[in-house]
User: Fold these one by one.
Assistant:
Number 1:
Amino acid sequence: MPMKTLVQFINEKQSEYPSATGDLTRLLNDIGIAAKIVNREIRRAGLADINGYFGTTNIQGEDQKKLDVFANDQFINALKHGGQCAALASEENEDMIIFGNKYSMQGKYVVAFDPIDGSSNIEVNVPIGTIFAIYKRISSVGASGSLEDLLQSGNHLVAAGYVMYGSSTMLVYTTGNGVNGFTYDATVGLFFLSHPNMKIPENGTIYSINEANYRYFPEGVKRYIKYCQEDDKATNRPYSTRYIGSLVADVHRNLIRGGIFIYPGTLKNPNGKLRLLYELAPMAFIVEQAGGKASDGFRRIMDLEPYDLHQRAPVFIGSKEMVIKAEEFMQEFSPDFVEKM
Ligand code: AHM
Ligand code: MG
């Protein structure tokens, strides 16, 4: 059977919309090219001098790894020279980057991204990822991009996706019409459609959470964990724990197998750890498009209004029935927790 490439698939989708200009197609293709370059470098990690720290810290106060910096540069360059993107926000840059060249100012879109998600896993050869979120700008085409272009809720996402650099490299994306996954064939340098129309099981038996923070969890999360660990044949409990520590890889596994990923707010950090704009909103869009659910325990992640590029939010994301159950525990045992956010 002939295999469809990512570029062919994107072009085919565009042709279903007679009014489409091809700008989003070009933007997605540019992201695909940057992903290939980053993938090449990741595959050489350990051989090339790409492991380790760069000697700087980012806005979150985290040490930047060489690969964080390399990947960030690749995506910025791809977007800067592509001409479709007027401005961007990255985990690695405190402020948004506005492309001042005339070409980019004509771009209709802005992009928020996390160039390397799961950085702490780089030197131990565990899957890492890239996450991207594409919004249509609010400011006029031809003018400079503005902060309000990026501070839009997930409901305004035009497209979102992730790249997972795992045992194989995959690019998974949605434009709001289902989710499709592509696997990279390094021998020909192309992504091929391998996971058409991905659907997350409504229920699963995996829960993913960093349980080391248990004593700081809200009561609702503590009770939900106990629920996951109880014996009950009818609901296949006890569930299993799987925690990679790379959001992309944990969510990707749950997308295929069924499961829930939780990074809750804690008594120490009421908004949790993960960032709304370039981690949670795009992953929520993908999971919802695959039939799953993503919430902060009370509200849809997609409904949360960003006020800061690097703002954090708690997250419960994955199989619909599992997220609904976790929300019930939050609402019953930690109803005041939403106020802390
Ligand atoms: P990063 O983007 O700086 O790598 O941080 C995000 C990562 C997620 O991929 C992962 O889910 C989480 O941080 C793990 O955090 P923790 O080590 O606290 O469990
Ligand atoms: Mg990240």
Number 2:
Amino acid sequence: MDTYVKASLLPGASKASQLRTRTVRAMKIPVWEETLTYHGFTHQDAARKTLRLCVCEDPWLRRRRRAPPLGELRVPLRKLVPNQARSFDICLEKWRLTKRSKSLDTARGMSLYQEEVETEVAGEERGRVLLSLCYSSQRGGLLVGVLRCAHLAPMDANGYSDPFVRLFLHPNTGKKSKFKTSVRRKTLNPEFNEEFFYSGPREELAQKTLLVSVWDYDLGTADDFIGGVQLGSHASGECLRHWLECLGHSDHRLELWHLLDSRPVQLSD
Ligand code: CA
């Protein structure tokens, strides 16, 4: 049998958190020896999420029809201790059918476990973005790194998005204020690692607002807005902390994850 293992985090849009191993061919006792990494994983995730691992037969290599997974196991992640590896030796359970929630837009491929739909999920349904900020005294300006996004909402019928990120520094004072990353095709966990530069004195930049928005590229039609976040002295929480720590000091680089908001990015006074 040709088999691979598919991982997802529940509750939540299962495609957004889906990772998989490579396929091991023609083995009765497959050995994968692979590490799958969830970027942007927080203590809150650990407290309330369950890792589901499904062992699946790869239908494509032998041109078969897609079959249900051979079995699955579920690990509540609150059982883990930070920085401590744990091994599990568990029999696979029969695969459980996922039920779709009627209240959600199923056309977008959001498959949620009905019994686990919680209001908390709503706050995270658009995904998150990892940004780095640093005021460079040598170059005389702010370096904004768009590193990656995680668990983005699927906007295309295939259950994925083609994400890219736009930056806008407000108010615009004649210098270049808009930037965008390249498009990553068919993924909900894109890696960008792109850096952009806003020149100007630190005190002046500290008064401005950085608008970050994530979009799904669509060929021939308008791009879909996935979510956005605002950093600046008028922001709150982690967005404010990130801005103050990096614009309050020179040459202090900080990377932070920010949750994306589904509301269109608007300037707050
Ligand atoms: Ca698209």
